[in-house]
Amino acid sequence: MTEHGRPDDELRLRLGDMRRALITDIDNTLIGDPAALEELLGRLADSEVPLCFGVATGRHLEITLEILEEWSVPLPDVLVTAVGTEIYYGPDLRPDTGWSEKIARQWAPENIRGILADLPGLHPQPPENQRAFKISYIVPAGDVAIVRRVEALLSDGDLPASVIYSHGQFLDILPVRAGKGAAIQYLAGRWTWPPEHILVAGDSGNDADMLLTECLGVVVGNHSPELEWLRGRPGILFAPGKFAAGINDALDYYGFLHTEPRNLEDSR
Ligand code: GLC
Ligand code: MG
Fold first, then answer.
1. Are the beta carbons of 196 and 215 closer than 8 angstroms?
2. Would you say residue 17 has pLDDT above 90?
3. Probe ligand 1: pick from 138, 172, 204, max atoms within 8 Å of CB?
4. What is the residue with the minimal CA distance to atom 4 of ligand 1?
5. How far apart are CA 162 and CA 154, in angstroms?
6. Half-sphere exposure of 50 toward its Cβ, with a 13 Å CA cutoff?
7. Distances (CA, A) of 137 to 163, 216, 250
8. Are 164 and 58 in contact (CB under 8 A)?
């Protein structure tokens, strides 16, 4: 079925009707505290307003589905996977081909792999973590300087790309237009969700760009040090609660699930 075929109309009817969207990172944000997760899922199920539940993760689709099942999380309406390079819609996991077409421009993975092949300290992640639009490495713990060296090599080679550093040890190279933040902006545009009706939640480096969008944001209490620099930014709550408890804090703070939310319009 084409982009403009019937499934697209169904999606538009469903997603275009949503009055709120919660898009959350999975590891160490949504999952980690089973009781807090259960409370969150209960609150989402009881929401007064039609709500889109989405995840945005560094993991690839198959393993994302496994971990959600393991934690008894219902299948999300939207799955942003592989660090914002792939978008799928539940329940049939239909890929958003418009997104892949958009990010494919200027993407030269072979040249990028080639130019980085001899850089000491850069170790490719296992093959299943290498995706069409995501090249992933492991770097020595805490070696921030290697990030600058990678950026310099790409820039010298005239290879535009986004370089994302997470958990002090993962390095992802993505198309220049990709990333969790860009994917969420694309979703907001496609389904006409105002940014202030979207709440994004995260804990580590690959969440930074989505926290920096116009959407409401929450950094959970157990976040990595690499997100500290976002503290004090308008529209980004540093929640006391850890894992899903931090998301619950944000639902309260923003009054996010109320028909007349507080703090929504004036938070940015
Ligand atoms: C996930 C992915 C990995 C990526 C990391 C940081 O762990 O599996 O490939 O590097 O997230 O984005
Ligand atoms: Mg995480």
1. yes
2. no
3. 172
4. 58
5. 10
6. 9
7. 11, 30, 33
8. no
